[in-house]
């Protein structure tokens, strides 16, 4: 996906300079952007990305694979643990909760199409568990999006 915006800058790891994804992300942060869009979070650099996401940007966007909202968050934890920062699971979960506010889950439907099937707000961590507030779900039977009655934290 290519963002078309007058002030968008596209940076890519590798290339002639052989820069790592973490080096590219650090360079992007030094440019003081309003938003960060990071392709896919994979590998130990996920911990660095989460640190940047939780440091006051208006919005950041990234992709991580999982079979559910909760599975994607657990995968993110595993990637952060791979960074071997000396942090325990409680600290990693706090870092995830500080860096992620909204999780959208997309599924491939039986007809082969892809559709966002769930949107949940990550409200924090309590008793070492993520507090997820479902905001929207897709009902396959009615082919409709159903919004929950929950108000997102940014509206309260």
Name given to the CATH homologous superfamily: P-loop containing nucleotide triphosphate hydrolases
Integer-rounded radius of gyration: 17 Å
Compute the number of structural domains.
Answer: 1
- So how many helices? 4
Q: Could you tell me how far the N terminus lies from the C terminus, measured between alpha carbons in angstroms?
A: 33 Å
CATH class: Alpha Beta
Beta strand %: 25-35%
Question: Sheet with the most strands?
Answer: 4 strands, antiparallel
Q: What do we call the CATH topology?
A: Rossmann fold
SSE succession: HEHEHHEEEE
- Helix percent reads 25-40%
Q: What's the average pLDDT? A: 86
For the largest sheet, list the strands in their spatial order: 3-4-5-6
Q: What is the correct CATH architecture?
A: 3-Layer(aba) Sandwich
Give the uncertain stretches in residue-range form. Answer: none
Give the beta-strand count. Answer: 6
Structural class per helix/strand content?
A: alpha+beta
Bulk shape: globular
Keywords:
156 residues, alpha+beta, Rossmann fold, four-stranded antiparallel β-sheet, two-stranded parallel ribbon
């Amino acid at each position: 996906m290519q963002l078309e915006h007058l002030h968008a800058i596209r940076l890519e790891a590798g290339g002639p300079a052989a820069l790592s994804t973490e080096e590219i992300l650090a360079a992007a942060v030094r440019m003081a952007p309003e938003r960060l869009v990071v392709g896919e979070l994979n590998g130990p650099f996920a911990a660095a990305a989460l640190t940047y996401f939780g440091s006051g940007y208006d919005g950041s966007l990234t992709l991580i694979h999982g079979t559910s909202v909760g599975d994607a968050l657990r995968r993110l934890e595993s990637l952060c643990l791979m960074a071997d920062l000396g942090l325990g699971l409680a600290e990693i979960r706090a870092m995830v909760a500080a860096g992620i506010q909204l999780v959208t889950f997309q599924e491939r439907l039986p007809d082969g199409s892809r559709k966002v099937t769930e949107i949940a707000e990550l409200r924090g961590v309590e008793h070492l568990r993520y507090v997820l507030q479902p905001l929207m779900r897709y009902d396959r039977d009615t082919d409709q999006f159903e919004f929950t009655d929950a108000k997102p934290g940014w509206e309260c």
